Amino acid sequence: MAHVAQVTTPTLVSAQGDQISLDEQKHDVVLSGTADANTVLHLILAGVSKTNTPNVTVGADGQWTYTLSSTEMAALGQ
Questions:
Q1: How far apart are CA 71 and CA 41, in angstroms?
Q2: Where are the alpha helices (DSSP H) in the chain?
Q3: CA distance 42 to 11
Q4: Of 2, 4, 22, 56, which is least packed with CB atoms within 10 Å of its CB?
């Protein structure tokens, strides 16, 4: 029988809030948050989950960060 672990819902913290302005889209945006330590998060950006959507490794302290480049934002059509 397989064991299924209970995980905590990851949190997202962004200095920009929930929306990224047109001006902010010209620069990289750092996303960060917390999740279960030593896990891997699959980010879904703009409601899009593709094979090229990034995975982020959560540190032993439960913290994670991802830098969303302006190129990635343009590719998402944001």
A1: 21
A2: 70-76
A3: 13
A4: 2
3-state helix, strand, coil in the chain (%, to 5): 15, 30, 60
Closest by Cα among 34, 50, 33 to 42: 50
SS3 for 56?
strand
The arithmetic mean of pLDDT across residues 14-34, rounded, is: 70
pLDDT band, very low/low/confident/very high, at 77 (cuts 50, 70, 90): low
Which residues neighbour 40 within 8 Å (Cβ) at sequence distance 6 or greater?
55, 56, 57, 58
d(CA 35, CA 19): 22
Determine how many CB atoms are found less than 10 A away from the CB of residue 63.
Answer: 13
Distance CA 44, CA 66 (A): 12
pLDDT for 61: 95
